[in-house]
Structures are given as C-alpha cells and as structure tokens.
Amino acid sequence: MKTIAFHLNCLVQGGAERVVSNLANQFAKEGYKVYVATEWVDQNEFALDERVTRVHVGLREGDEKKNRITKFFLRIKYLKEFVKKYHPDVLIAFAQRANYRALMAAGNSDVPVVISIRTDPVGHYDALSDKVQIKWLFPKAAGCVFQTTGQKEFFKPYLQDNSRIILNPVNPKYFGVTAPSEREKAVVHHARLVDFKNQPMLCRAFIKVHEKHPDYVLKIYGPDSFDGTKEILEKIIAENHAEDYILLMGGSDELEKEIPKGAVYAFSSDWEGMPNSLLEAMAMGMPIVATDCPCGGPRTVMTDGKNGLLVPIKDEDKMAEGISKLIEDRELAERLGKEAAKIEEIANADAVFVQWRDYLDEVIARSKR
C-alpha cells in the first residue's frame, strides 16, 4: 500500500483546503494510506474520510509563550518528527509557508517532497526572504504542482523540471447546467467583494455599456470581505445614479441557477491564482469577458475568441467593448459559451484526481530508483 501525506496549515474552508480534503478522501477510497498533517484545527473545516489520518504537527502546549524564531524551528522539528515516524512515500505541501516547512523538514531525507503554488508569485514569493528560501529550498523539491503557466515561468529555473499544471476541480453542480431558452438582459459576476477582484472597474465599465444598452443590468453576486470594496461600489452606484441597473446581490447558494440566466459573464480581477469563479462560469457555459490577469489563470484555460474574450487588466474601456460585443453578437456569445463548457473534460473531480494520482505515482517511482 502506498502512503501519502499532505501538509498545510489547517482545513478551514478555502480553496487549497478544499482541494486537499477532496484529494485526501479520494486517495483513501482508492486504497492509499493517507495522512493530513496540519498546524492547527480551526472552525468550519472540511470533513475528512474516516480512513484518512489527521496528525497535529503544529505548536504544542506551552510553545506559544516562546519567541518567534524558536516557534519557527519547533514547527520544522515537529514536521520532521512526523516524517520520520510515518515515513510517507511522498509528502505534498500546500501553500507558501507549508512549502518551506516541508522542504526544511524532509528535503534532505529519502521522502520526496512535492510542493504546490496556489497564488500569483508576484507579491507573494518575491520578497528578499522568499528569494533566499527559494534558491536554497526549491531545488530540493521532487516536483511541483502549478495552477497556471505564469506561475511555472516565474520559478524558472528551480521548478521547471518534474512539474505539472493541474487545475482545481470544479464543483459538479456547475456542470451540465441548462441555459434558459431566452437569457435575461443581464451581465453577471460572482466573487467575494475584495480589492484584487476589481469590481469597481467592472462597474465603471458597465456604466459605459449601459449608455449603449440601457435595457441591461449588472448583477454582482458575492459576500463582503469587509476591506472597503463594497463601500467603493456603493459610492460608484450612488454617484452615477445607477441603483436601478447595478445590483449588489450578496452571496448565494444557488449560483448554478442564477448565473446561467445572464447573457454575459464578466471577470474583472487584477491578479489571481487559478480563479474558481472563472472555472465555474466556464463550466456553466457562460459567454465570458475576462481580464488577462497575472499569473495567467484565465489564459491557461481560455483562448481569446475561441471560448471567451480576454481583455487587459484595469481597462474599463476594453471590458466595456467586450461586454457590448457579446450583447450585440448573440451567435458569437453562445458559441463561446459552448466552447467554455468543455472545461468539464479537464476540471471535473475525477479527471483532476487522476492527474494528481498519476503524477504522485510517477514521483514515488522515481524516488525509489
């Protein structure tokens, strides 16, 4: 029986945590012995299959009183003890600090370490301390899983070999959604209201769209992140007297019913890893206008003019042009939407699991040679 271990901070509900919990459960069902090594237990976490063993590798009672440097090395020590005790065939780390910890704890052992990059490296992996750690630690990695081509290029030459690009699995409820016979005259968007999603740019772009198409509305679904973005949106709406045609819809548990009603889907982020909201919109067969944001998430899954339209980031004029184009050319819009829906072939849970399984099996086999 092959043994694999995942390492991350906790399993609180988030993108990386969802991927790890799903993968751990699937590997366990496939007969692998699976460990999930976490730093702490949080509220509202994803559930693990009873066959998955969760192990605490974080700070212990009394450690919190120690200084920051001591706590840093204790975290490495405890993870190293875990690796020595359970000796998995491969250790997979998720997220930045977990990547560093895993390579420090096991990078010189006979346990191969696969790291994963989950965000835009620019701004997250380019501080001086990161550059030092990357140069020292990343060559120890047996492999890396990226989400986008841009991420992979950023880490050249340290992580080009033995790496893979694997998407996040899309929730199956977004696949096979039937589009209405007649779509509403609405542009739709769903994401947290947060600065890097740049919904203010989308609102300003739509005000220009509305001048040409006054019968269309913009519906923005998503919860408030409380970083001030919602207040900025409300100010834009008020200053432009747009209360009747720019609608902040709040969060929804039925996006698979609401989003497909729209005529056009708009994605406006300034940067992302691999955005789940974009993958979900594609899965639902939406005609999409998306910013070509770093680190290449949209460009990894979209080809301009084939399964959506790509526009420059922070460019409200180009966003407005793209939205208007799909409003005015419904034949093009529906064709792009049908092509976008083909994302199901590579982003369904089974396909993503097979990619991970085949890659990890390859890493394990290579380490035993």
UniProtKB/TrEMBL annotation:
Pfam families found in the cross-reference section: Glyco_transf_4 (PF13439), Glycos_transf_1 (PF00534)
Domain of life according to the entry: Bacteria
Location of the Glycosyl transferase family domain: 175-342
Keyword annotations from UniProtKB, A to Z: Transferase
Gene Ontology MF terms in the entry: glycosyltransferase activity
Domain Glycosyltransferase subfamily 4-like N-terminal: 14-172
Protein name: Glycosyltransferase involved in cell wall bisynthesis
